[in-house]
Amino acid sequence: MARKVAPVDVRLVAAVAGGEINVSLFCREYGISRDTFYRWRDRYREQGLAGLEPRSSAPKTSPSRTSVQVEDVVVALRKELDEAGLDAGAGTIQWHLGRRGLPVVPSVATIWRILVRRGFVVPESRKRPKSSLRRFEAAAPNELWQTDATKWVIGVGQVEVLTFLDDHSRLVTASVAVLTATTDNTWATFCSAVETWGLPSGQLSDNGLNFSGRLRGYEVAFEINLRAAGVRPITSRPYHPQTCGKIERFHQTLKKWLRRQPLAQNLAELQAQLDTFIAIYNYERPHRGIGRTTPIERWSATPKAINFGLALPAPQRTPTAAVNQHGLVRVAPWIIHVGVDHIGRTARVMLDDTHAAVFIDGRLVRHLELDHSRPYQPSGLPRGRPRRRLP
Predict the structure, then answer these.
(1) In this structure, are 279 and 327 located in the same domain?
(2) Lowest-pLDDT range, 18-22, 138-142, 222-226, 296-300?
(3) Do 183 and 227 belong together in one domain?
(4) What angle, 0 to 180 degrees and rounded to 10, lies between the N-to-C axes of helices 68-83 and 108-117?
Protein backbone atom coordinates (compact mmCIF):
# COMPACT_ATOMS: atom_id res chain seq x y z
CA MET A 1 0.00 0.00 0.00
CA ALA A 2 1.40 3.45 -0.90
CA ARG A 3 2.42 5.71 1.99
CA LYS A 4 0.16 8.73 2.40
CA VAL A 5 1.82 12.15 2.07
CA ALA A 6 0.13 15.02 3.90
CA PRO A 7 -0.37 18.31 1.99
CA VAL A 8 2.14 21.05 2.80
CA ASP A 9 -0.57 23.31 4.33
CA VAL A 10 -1.41 20.58 6.89
CA ARG A 11 2.28 20.32 7.76
CA LEU A 12 2.51 24.08 8.09
CA VAL A 13 -0.54 24.34 10.36
CA ALA A 14 0.85 21.57 12.56
CA ALA A 15 4.25 23.28 12.67
CA VAL A 16 3.13 26.81 13.59
CA ALA A 17 0.17 25.92 15.77
CA GLY A 18 0.51 26.79 19.42
CA GLY A 19 -1.46 25.67 22.42
CA GLU A 20 -4.69 27.04 20.99
CA ILE A 21 -5.55 23.82 19.05
CA ASN A 22 -6.52 20.39 20.31
CA VAL A 23 -3.65 18.19 19.05
CA SER A 24 -5.57 14.90 19.36
CA LEU A 25 -8.58 16.26 17.46
CA PHE A 26 -6.33 17.77 14.77
CA CYS A 27 -4.47 14.46 14.29
CA ARG A 28 -7.70 12.46 14.00
CA GLU A 29 -9.13 14.91 11.47
CA TYR A 30 -6.11 14.75 9.17
CA GLY A 31 -5.20 11.11 9.77
CA ILE A 32 -1.75 11.64 11.28
CA SER A 33 -0.17 10.46 14.51
CA ARG A 34 0.73 12.69 17.45
CA ASP A 35 4.41 11.75 16.95
CA THR A 36 4.21 13.06 13.36
CA PHE A 37 2.58 16.28 14.55
CA TYR A 38 5.36 17.03 17.04
CA ARG A 39 8.09 15.91 14.61
CA TRP A 40 6.86 18.44 12.00
CA ARG A 41 6.77 21.17 14.65
CA ASP A 42 10.32 20.43 15.80
CA ARG A 43 11.65 20.37 12.22
CA TYR A 44 9.99 23.72 11.50
CA ARG A 45 11.58 25.29 14.57
CA GLU A 46 15.02 23.95 13.58
CA GLN A 47 15.00 24.34 9.77
CA GLY A 48 12.06 26.56 8.88
CA LEU A 49 9.97 25.74 5.79
CA ALA A 50 12.73 23.47 4.42
CA GLY A 51 12.12 21.11 7.30
CA LEU A 52 8.54 20.49 6.10
CA GLU A 53 9.54 19.10 2.67
CA PRO A 54 8.63 15.37 2.20
CA ARG A 55 11.56 13.09 2.93
CA SER A 56 12.36 9.64 1.54
CA SER A 57 11.85 6.73 3.93
CA ALA A 58 14.46 4.61 2.15
CA PRO A 59 17.42 3.57 4.29
CA LYS A 60 20.68 5.45 3.73
CA THR A 61 22.56 2.19 3.24
CA SER A 62 21.51 -1.31 2.03
CA PRO A 63 24.23 -3.77 3.01
CA SER A 64 22.34 -6.74 1.48
CA ARG A 65 21.76 -5.09 -1.91
CA THR A 66 23.43 -6.79 -4.88
CA SER A 67 26.67 -5.09 -5.80
CA VAL A 68 27.03 -3.04 -8.95
CA GLN A 69 29.69 -5.48 -10.19
CA VAL A 70 27.26 -8.43 -9.99
CA GLU A 71 24.56 -6.37 -11.69
CA ASP A 72 26.99 -5.60 -14.51
CA VAL A 73 27.73 -9.34 -14.92
CA VAL A 74 23.98 -10.07 -15.11
CA VAL A 75 23.43 -7.34 -17.70
CA ALA A 76 26.43 -8.46 -19.79
CA LEU A 77 25.18 -12.06 -19.82
CA ARG A 78 21.70 -10.89 -20.74
CA LYS A 79 23.09 -9.03 -23.74
CA GLU A 80 25.30 -11.96 -24.73
CA LEU A 81 22.42 -14.45 -24.74
CA ASP A 82 20.05 -12.07 -26.51
CA GLU A 83 22.55 -11.26 -29.25
CA ALA A 84 23.11 -14.99 -29.79
CA GLY A 85 19.37 -15.50 -30.30
CA LEU A 86 19.05 -17.67 -27.17
CA ASP A 87 16.68 -17.45 -24.21
CA ALA A 88 17.69 -14.63 -21.87
CA GLY A 89 15.17 -14.74 -19.02
CA ALA A 90 16.05 -14.48 -15.34
CA GLY A 91 16.00 -18.25 -14.80
CA THR A 92 18.25 -18.92 -17.78
CA ILE A 93 20.69 -16.21 -16.69
CA GLN A 94 20.88 -17.75 -13.20
CA TRP A 95 21.61 -21.18 -14.73
CA HIS A 96 24.48 -19.80 -16.81
CA LEU A 97 25.91 -17.84 -13.85
CA GLY A 98 26.03 -21.06 -11.84
CA ARG A 99 27.75 -22.93 -14.67
CA ARG A 100 30.33 -20.14 -15.03
CA GLY A 101 31.40 -20.36 -11.41
CA LEU A 102 30.18 -17.03 -10.02
CA PRO A 103 30.99 -17.09 -6.26
CA VAL A 104 27.53 -15.91 -5.22
CA VAL A 105 24.70 -16.56 -7.68
CA PRO A 106 21.69 -14.20 -7.21
CA SER A 107 18.21 -15.63 -6.97
CA VAL A 108 15.88 -15.56 -9.96
CA ALA A 109 13.83 -12.80 -8.27
CA THR A 110 16.97 -10.70 -7.71
CA ILE A 111 18.05 -11.11 -11.33
CA TRP A 112 14.56 -10.14 -12.48
CA ARG A 113 14.69 -6.96 -10.33
CA ILE A 114 18.10 -6.10 -11.79
CA LEU A 115 16.70 -6.47 -15.32
CA VAL A 116 13.75 -4.26 -14.40
CA ARG A 117 16.02 -1.56 -12.93
CA ARG A 118 18.25 -1.62 -16.00
CA GLY A 119 15.28 -1.38 -18.41
CA PHE A 120 15.45 -4.87 -19.94
CA VAL A 121 11.99 -6.04 -18.88
CA VAL A 122 9.03 -4.80 -20.91
CA PRO A 123 5.61 -5.29 -19.24
CA GLU A 124 3.37 -7.73 -21.15
CA SER A 125 -0.36 -8.27 -21.12
CA ARG A 126 -1.68 -10.94 -18.81
CA LYS A 127 -1.49 -14.44 -20.26
CA ARG A 128 -3.66 -17.48 -19.79
CA PRO A 129 -2.70 -19.13 -16.47
CA LYS A 130 -0.61 -22.27 -16.85
CA SER A 131 -2.91 -24.09 -14.44
CA SER A 132 -5.67 -24.00 -17.08
CA LEU A 133 -3.60 -25.97 -19.61
CA ARG A 134 -3.80 -29.74 -19.98
CA ARG A 135 -0.22 -30.99 -20.18
CA PHE A 136 1.02 -34.43 -21.13
CA GLU A 137 4.51 -35.87 -21.26
CA ALA A 138 5.86 -39.29 -22.15
CA ALA A 139 7.18 -41.18 -19.12
CA ALA A 140 10.49 -42.23 -20.70
CA PRO A 141 12.76 -41.40 -23.64
CA ASN A 142 11.73 -43.07 -26.91
CA GLU A 143 8.20 -43.68 -25.64
CA LEU A 144 6.95 -40.98 -28.02
CA TRP A 145 8.50 -38.70 -30.61
CA GLN A 146 6.96 -35.58 -32.12
CA THR A 147 7.59 -34.33 -35.64
CA ASP A 148 6.68 -31.34 -37.76
CA ALA A 149 7.94 -29.29 -40.70
CA THR A 150 8.22 -25.49 -40.70
CA LYS A 151 9.00 -23.04 -43.48
CA TRP A 152 12.15 -20.89 -43.66
CA VAL A 153 13.57 -18.53 -46.28
CA ILE A 154 17.13 -18.82 -47.62
CA GLY A 155 18.95 -17.20 -50.55
CA VAL A 156 17.23 -19.39 -53.17
CA GLY A 157 13.72 -18.96 -51.73
CA GLN A 158 11.44 -20.74 -49.29
CA VAL A 159 12.40 -24.18 -47.98
CA GLU A 160 11.33 -26.34 -45.04
CA VAL A 161 12.96 -27.63 -41.86
CA LEU A 162 11.84 -31.13 -40.88
CA THR A 163 12.41 -32.00 -37.21
CA PHE A 164 11.95 -34.99 -34.89
CA LEU A 165 11.95 -34.47 -31.10
CA ASP A 166 11.69 -36.83 -28.13
CA ASP A 167 8.59 -35.96 -26.08
CA HIS A 168 10.04 -36.88 -22.66
CA SER A 169 13.48 -35.29 -22.81
CA ARG A 170 12.92 -32.63 -25.54
CA LEU A 171 16.04 -33.98 -27.22
CA VAL A 172 16.07 -33.19 -30.95
CA THR A 173 16.78 -36.49 -32.68
CA ALA A 174 16.96 -35.01 -36.19
CA SER A 175 16.51 -31.66 -37.93
CA VAL A 176 17.00 -31.54 -41.69
CA ALA A 177 16.68 -28.80 -44.31
CA VAL A 178 14.66 -29.92 -47.36
CA LEU A 179 13.13 -28.16 -50.33
CA THR A 180 9.71 -29.62 -49.50
CA ALA A 181 8.75 -32.12 -46.83
CA THR A 182 7.55 -35.30 -48.55
CA THR A 183 6.61 -38.67 -47.17
CA ASP A 184 9.85 -40.11 -48.60
CA ASN A 185 12.29 -37.61 -47.04
CA THR A 186 10.24 -37.71 -43.83
CA TRP A 187 10.82 -41.45 -43.61
CA ALA A 188 14.51 -41.05 -44.53
CA THR A 189 14.98 -38.46 -41.76
CA PHE A 190 13.19 -40.71 -39.26
CA CYS A 191 15.47 -43.64 -40.17
CA SER A 192 18.55 -41.45 -39.74
CA ALA A 193 17.38 -40.42 -36.27
CA VAL A 194 16.66 -44.05 -35.32
CA GLU A 195 20.20 -45.07 -36.21
CA THR A 196 21.54 -42.64 -33.59
CA TRP A 197 18.89 -42.59 -30.86
CA GLY A 198 16.97 -45.85 -31.19
CA LEU A 199 13.44 -46.78 -32.24
CA PRO A 200 10.52 -44.98 -30.56
CA SER A 201 7.29 -46.73 -29.63
CA GLY A 202 5.03 -43.97 -30.94
CA GLN A 203 5.25 -41.13 -33.44
CA LEU A 204 3.05 -38.03 -33.06
CA SER A 205 2.47 -35.58 -35.93
CA ASP A 206 -0.11 -33.25 -37.35
CA ASN A 207 -2.17 -34.18 -40.42
CA GLY A 208 0.27 -32.91 -43.03
CA LEU A 209 0.18 -35.14 -46.11
CA ASN A 210 3.82 -36.15 -45.70
CA PHE A 211 2.92 -37.56 -42.24
CA SER A 212 -0.60 -38.94 -42.57
CA GLY A 213 -3.46 -39.52 -44.97
CA ARG A 214 -5.94 -40.52 -42.27
CA LEU A 215 -8.24 -37.54 -42.78
CA ARG A 216 -8.26 -38.31 -46.51
CA GLY A 217 -9.30 -41.91 -45.99
CA TYR A 218 -5.98 -43.67 -46.60
CA GLU A 219 -2.46 -44.15 -45.26
CA VAL A 220 0.68 -42.57 -46.72
CA ALA A 221 3.98 -44.43 -47.00
CA PHE A 222 5.33 -42.86 -43.80
CA GLU A 223 2.46 -44.33 -41.75
CA ILE A 224 2.75 -47.72 -43.44
CA ASN A 225 6.50 -47.84 -42.80
CA LEU A 226 6.03 -46.84 -39.17
CA ARG A 227 3.61 -49.68 -38.54
CA ALA A 228 5.90 -52.13 -40.31
CA ALA A 229 8.66 -51.07 -37.87
CA GLY A 230 6.35 -51.48 -34.87
CA VAL A 231 5.91 -47.73 -34.28
CA ARG A 232 2.38 -46.56 -33.55
CA PRO A 233 1.49 -43.54 -35.76
CA ILE A 234 -0.56 -40.89 -33.91
CA THR A 235 -2.04 -37.71 -35.40
CA SER A 236 -3.35 -34.60 -33.66
CA ARG A 237 -6.87 -33.29 -33.86
CA PRO A 238 -7.38 -30.98 -36.86
CA TYR A 239 -6.83 -27.27 -36.09
CA HIS A 240 -5.39 -28.11 -32.65
CA PRO A 241 -1.62 -27.41 -32.80
CA GLN A 242 -1.38 -27.59 -29.00
CA THR A 243 -1.24 -31.40 -29.27
CA CYS A 244 2.15 -31.06 -30.97
CA GLY A 245 3.08 -28.10 -28.78
CA LYS A 246 6.60 -29.27 -27.92
CA ILE A 247 7.78 -29.43 -31.53
CA GLU A 248 5.91 -26.20 -32.34
CA ARG A 249 7.70 -24.46 -29.46
CA PHE A 250 11.05 -25.83 -30.58
CA HIS A 251 10.59 -24.34 -34.04
CA GLN A 252 9.89 -20.93 -32.46
CA THR A 253 13.15 -21.19 -30.50
CA LEU A 254 15.03 -22.34 -33.61
CA LYS A 255 13.74 -19.44 -35.73
CA LYS A 256 14.65 -16.91 -33.04
CA TRP A 257 18.24 -18.19 -33.23
CA LEU A 258 18.29 -18.38 -37.05
CA ARG A 259 17.22 -14.73 -37.34
CA ARG A 260 20.49 -13.75 -35.62
CA GLN A 261 22.58 -15.75 -38.12
CA PRO A 262 23.70 -14.73 -41.63
CA LEU A 263 21.15 -15.62 -44.32
CA ALA A 264 21.91 -19.12 -45.61
CA GLN A 265 22.37 -19.11 -49.38
CA ASN A 266 21.54 -22.78 -49.96
CA LEU A 267 20.37 -25.93 -48.20
CA ALA A 268 23.92 -26.93 -47.24
CA GLU A 269 24.53 -23.65 -45.40
CA LEU A 270 21.16 -23.88 -43.66
CA GLN A 271 21.91 -27.46 -42.63
CA ALA A 272 25.23 -26.34 -41.12
CA GLN A 273 23.36 -23.72 -39.09
CA LEU A 274 20.84 -26.32 -37.96
CA ASP A 275 23.61 -28.68 -36.85
CA THR A 276 25.22 -25.89 -34.81
CA PHE A 277 21.98 -24.97 -33.08
CA ILE A 278 20.98 -28.59 -32.35
CA ALA A 279 24.31 -29.08 -30.56
CA ILE A 280 23.59 -25.99 -28.44
CA TYR A 281 19.98 -27.01 -27.84
CA ASN A 282 20.68 -30.62 -26.85
CA TYR A 283 23.88 -30.14 -24.83
CA GLU A 284 24.27 -26.53 -23.66
CA ARG A 285 20.91 -24.78 -23.33
CA PRO A 286 18.83 -25.19 -20.13
CA HIS A 287 15.23 -26.10 -20.93
CA ARG A 288 12.58 -24.48 -18.75
CA GLY A 289 10.03 -27.22 -19.51
CA ILE A 290 12.23 -29.92 -17.93
CA GLY A 291 13.44 -28.15 -14.81
CA ARG A 292 16.29 -26.11 -16.31
CA THR A 293 18.28 -29.20 -17.31
CA THR A 294 19.61 -29.85 -20.79
CA PRO A 295 17.78 -32.36 -23.02
CA ILE A 296 20.78 -34.73 -23.07
CA GLU A 297 20.86 -34.76 -19.25
CA ARG A 298 17.20 -35.71 -19.07
CA TRP A 299 17.60 -38.23 -21.90
CA SER A 300 20.39 -39.94 -19.93
CA ALA A 301 18.60 -39.86 -16.56
CA THR A 302 15.81 -42.36 -17.37
CA PRO A 303 15.88 -45.86 -18.94
CA LYS A 304 14.66 -45.83 -22.53
CA ALA A 305 11.35 -47.28 -23.63
CA ILE A 306 11.97 -50.48 -25.62
CA ASN A 307 10.39 -51.15 -28.99
CA PHE A 308 10.97 -54.70 -30.22
CA GLY A 309 10.14 -53.71 -33.80
CA LEU A 310 7.18 -56.08 -34.21
CA ALA A 311 4.97 -54.98 -37.09
CA LEU A 312 1.59 -53.56 -36.11
CA PRO A 313 -1.58 -54.71 -37.91
CA ALA A 314 -2.96 -52.51 -40.66
CA PRO A 315 -6.19 -50.70 -39.87
CA GLN A 316 -8.92 -52.13 -42.07
CA ARG A 317 -11.27 -49.77 -43.85
CA THR A 318 -14.61 -50.51 -45.43
CA PRO A 319 -15.57 -47.45 -47.48
CA THR A 320 -18.55 -47.54 -49.82
CA ALA A 321 -18.87 -45.97 -53.28
CA ALA A 322 -21.09 -46.20 -56.32
CA VAL A 323 -19.80 -47.95 -59.45
CA ASN A 324 -19.48 -45.22 -62.12
CA GLN A 325 -20.36 -45.37 -65.83
CA HIS A 326 -16.97 -46.91 -66.63
CA GLY A 327 -17.35 -49.77 -64.17
CA LEU A 328 -14.93 -48.21 -61.67
CA VAL A 329 -15.10 -47.84 -57.89
CA ARG A 330 -13.21 -44.87 -56.42
CA VAL A 331 -12.06 -45.30 -52.81
CA ALA A 332 -9.09 -43.02 -52.08
CA PRO A 333 -6.39 -43.49 -53.08
CA TRP A 334 -7.49 -46.37 -55.28
CA ILE A 335 -9.56 -46.67 -58.47
CA ILE A 336 -10.67 -50.30 -58.78
CA HIS A 337 -12.16 -51.82 -61.96
CA VAL A 338 -15.15 -54.10 -61.25
CA GLY A 339 -16.89 -54.07 -64.65
CA VAL A 340 -19.79 -52.35 -66.35
CA ASP A 341 -22.21 -55.03 -65.17
CA HIS A 342 -22.33 -53.21 -61.82
CA ILE A 343 -22.84 -49.62 -63.01
CA GLY A 344 -24.84 -47.56 -60.51
CA ARG A 345 -24.73 -50.15 -57.74
CA THR A 346 -23.15 -49.50 -54.34
CA ALA A 347 -19.91 -51.31 -53.59
CA ARG A 348 -18.40 -51.91 -50.16
CA VAL A 349 -14.61 -52.20 -50.27
CA MET A 350 -12.53 -53.84 -47.54
CA LEU A 351 -8.98 -52.43 -47.63
CA ASP A 352 -5.71 -53.09 -45.85
CA ASP A 353 -2.09 -52.41 -46.82
CA THR A 354 -1.87 -54.99 -49.57
CA HIS A 355 -5.30 -56.25 -50.60
CA ALA A 356 -8.80 -55.08 -51.47
CA ALA A 357 -12.07 -57.00 -51.51
CA VAL A 358 -15.12 -55.54 -53.28
CA PHE A 359 -18.62 -56.60 -52.18
CA ILE A 360 -21.88 -55.70 -53.93
CA ASP A 361 -25.18 -56.76 -52.34
CA GLY A 362 -23.20 -58.92 -49.92
CA ARG A 363 -21.48 -60.85 -52.72
CA LEU A 364 -17.74 -60.78 -53.34
CA VAL A 365 -17.28 -59.52 -56.90
CA ARG A 366 -13.54 -58.93 -56.85
CA HIS A 367 -10.50 -59.63 -54.67
CA LEU A 368 -7.08 -58.28 -55.64
CA GLU A 369 -3.58 -57.54 -54.48
CA LEU A 370 -3.03 -53.78 -54.65
CA ASP A 371 -0.37 -52.38 -56.98
CA HIS A 372 1.20 -49.50 -54.98
CA SER A 373 2.96 -48.08 -58.03
CA ARG A 374 -0.29 -46.55 -59.35
CA PRO A 375 -3.77 -45.70 -58.06
CA TYR A 376 -5.67 -47.41 -60.93
CA GLN A 377 -6.18 -51.13 -60.41
CA PRO A 378 -7.16 -52.70 -63.77
CA SER A 379 -9.49 -55.66 -64.15
CA GLY A 380 -6.62 -58.11 -64.63
CA LEU A 381 -8.31 -59.66 -67.66
CA PRO A 382 -6.29 -60.19 -70.88
CA ARG A 383 -5.97 -57.10 -73.03
CA GLY A 384 -7.60 -57.10 -76.48
CA ARG A 385 -10.69 -59.14 -75.55
CA PRO A 386 -14.02 -57.88 -76.98
CA ARG A 387 -15.48 -55.02 -74.93
CA ARG A 388 -18.96 -55.46 -73.52
CA ARG A 389 -21.35 -53.02 -75.15
CA LEU A 390 -23.61 -51.11 -72.82
CA PRO A 391 -27.35 -51.56 -73.49
Answers:
(1) no
(2) 18-22
(3) yes
(4) 80
The rounded percent of the chain whose pLDDT value lies above 90 is 43
The answer to whether 368 and 383 have CB atoms below 8 angstroms apart is no
- Ramachandran category for residue 221: left, alpha or beta (phi over 0 → left; psi -120 to 50 → alpha): alpha
Tally of domains within the chain: 4
Q: Which domain holds residue 19?
A: 8-52
β strands within 16-144, DSSP E: none
Q: Residue 335's beta-bridge partner residues?
A: 330, 376
Q: Is 30 helix (H, G, I), strand (E, B) or coil?
A: helix
Please report, as a single letter, which amino acid is at residue 295. P
3 belongs to a structural domain: no
Alpha-carbon distance values, 241 to 129, 223, 312 (Å): 18, 20, 27
50 φ, ψ (degrees, to nearest 5): -60, -30
Render pLDDT for 16-35 as a digit per residue (tens, 0 to 9): 665 567 888 888 887 888 88
Backbone CA torsion sign across 320, 329, 355, 215: negative
